[in-house]
Amino acid sequence: MRGRGLCVTRGLFITIEGLDGCGKSTQAARLADWLEARTGRGVLRTFEPGGWGGGALRSLILAGDVPDNRTELLLFLADRSGHLASVVLPALSEGRIVLCERYSDSTLAYQVWGRGLPEAFVASLIASCGFLAPDLTVLLDIDAGTAERRLGARGGADRIESAGSAFMARVAEGYRELARRSPERIVAVDAAGTEDEVGARIESALLKPLEERLRAG
Ligand code: TYD
């Protein structure tokens, strides 16, 4: 585990990322079971924003009247800070695997590529916060049109999901660029297809990097 900041951890920190409508929550549930069976370790499933009982902050971010992009960014970072301190780091220090839906790659893809905030500004804030870097990230790669169709079937879009097709296409491109830059950490998996097909792809793509991380840890 590449520990950054004050806390030395023993567990494994895995994040799962992708556009709204990519099937993240469904695949996270399957992946948690698979990780537990495969490693014999306890897996804590969590999510951002709001996975630490920070529900009020989640509501503010997703439903509230957020006046500008910088405020939105800072709310996500505040949420991450609380989530790390109260949920992620304690579980990792007990040697558990933490599987988190969304993390800093969401901030880069949505707030930089999506909203247009300068990358250097966002990256420097993330770095200054000293947030722990994930050991591995699964990116559910899907084109914006397919994700939008899936979301449409679900109904009840939140503030960010309602940002429009061009926004989501930029976020998708952001994710792809992040995956190109960090091939060691980010495992990109084609998220088109049935739940079983995508689940099988994730498992086969994770086998080797997971073994390597467990051996190193
Ligand atoms: P999510 O929980 O995936 O939404 P839902 O429960 O409706 O599937 O994420 C909430 C939204 O927040 C999603 O549109 C992505 C966005 N987001 C950012 O823009 N930046 C961030 O840093 C994070 C963590 C999420």
Strand order of the largest sheet: 2-3-1-4-5
The helix fraction, in percent, is 55-70%
Number of strands: 5
Radius of gyration: 16 Å
The average pLDDT value, as a whole number, equals: 93
**Unreliable parts:** 1-8
Bound small-molecule species: thymidine-5'-diphosphate
Q: Name the helix and strand elements from N-terminus to C-terminus, one letter apiece.
A: EHEHHEHHEHHEH
Shape: globular
How large is the count of helical segments?
8
- Largest sheet composition: 5 strands, parallel
In short:
This protein is of the alpha/beta class and 217 residues long. The chain is 56% helix and 13% strand.
General description of the model:
This protein has 217 residues and is α/β, with parallel strands linked by helices. It contains 8 helices and 5 strands. Strands 2-3-1-4-5 form a 5-stranded parallel β-sheet, sandwiched between helices. Helix 1 packs across helix 8 and helix 4 (104-114) packs antiparallel against helix 5. The chain is globular, with a radius of gyration of 16 Å. The termini are close together. Bound molecules: thymidine-5'-diphosphate. Residues 20, 47-49, 62, 76, 102, 106-107, 110-111, 158, 160-161 line the site of thymidine-5'-diphosphate.
